[in-house]
Design goal:
It is built from 7 helices and 7 strands; from the N terminus they run αβαβαββαββαβαα. By secondary structure, it is of the alpha/beta class. It has a single domain, classed as 3-Layer(aba) Sandwich (Rossmann fold). The protein has a 7-stranded mixed β-sheet, with helices on both faces.
Length: 241
């Protein structure tokens, strides 16, 4: 029994821990949601992680992103993530891709090599492409819906996208996936009605956006931990066993 994961093995069993250590998980997006997903995956002993994000860490990330500290500002998120994972579990194999995932870059990834895929990105086109590729590869995927402009961390739940309500992103995803013949997708989402951020209307207009979403320290993390918990349980405790 490996000392760092004794407490995990006490609940998941030796076979469950071994499944985690043999698993390869792809995590798309390392922001407020994805960073906390990564933290839990690393501390659960996942054996191989593929991390995909083209962004760098900025001052505005400090309020909600676990990878963001003053010492990591300006660093690629995938590099900060790689260092953090290896500092937690040096035995983990970490593959990094400073890439913005879009339909144009999708061919760089073979989804059949993964045991699980986590979608923690923001763009609808990228999310749709991730789900479609995962379904084609027969690889489990879980997708995070909207977390911006929300304050109730307890409102998040894991469900099928067909059962979602109130979430505008889930509504768009449900409609667009339906056009592709995909009716089911495991998601983390919240029924909380989004608030309207204030104070940045001019900045949003200058960027050609309707609004710049607000976010707090605890909401994205709650969603990220729900994503990770689902992945860990699905891998360690398969439903058919």
């Amino acid at each position: 029994m490996q000392e760092p994961f004794i407490r995990t093995q006490m609940l998941l069993g030796a076979d469950g821990l071994q499944r985690l250590q043999k698993a390869r998980v792809a995590l798309f997006g390392l922001g407020g949601v994805g960073g906390y997903t990564l933290e839990a995956l690393a501390r659960s002993g996942i054996g191989q992680l593929d991390l995909i994000d083209n962004d760098t860490i900025s001052l505005s990330n400090l309020n909600r992103q676990i990878l963001a500290t003053h010492s990591t500002i300006g660093m690629f998120k995938v590099e900060a993530a790689r260092r953090r994972v290896l500092d937690i579990n040096p035995e983990c194999t970490v593959n990094t891709y400073p890439i913005f995932y879009t339909p144009e870059t999708a061919d760089q990834f073979d989804f059949t090599q993964y045991d699980y895929i986590v979608d923690a990105i923001d763009t609808v086109t990228g999310k749709l492409q991730l789900v479609q590729r995962a379904v084609e590869a027969g690889t489990p995927i879980i997708s995070c819906m909207g977390t911006g402009n929300k304050l109730d961390a307890a409102a998040f739940e894991v469900t099928d996208i067909s059962k979602t309500t109130m979430c505008p992103l889930a509504r768009v995803m449900r409609r667009e996936l339906g056009k592709r013949g995909i009716r089911h997708l495991k998601v983390v989402y919240s029924r909380e009605e989004a608030l309207t951020p204030t104070g940045w209307e001019e900045e949003a207009a200058a960027l050609g956006k309707r609004q710049i979403p607000g976010s707090v320290s605890f909401v994205p993390g709650a969603a990220g931990l729900l994503l990770a918990g689902t992945v860990i349980r699905d891998i360690a405790l398969p439903a058919n066993e």
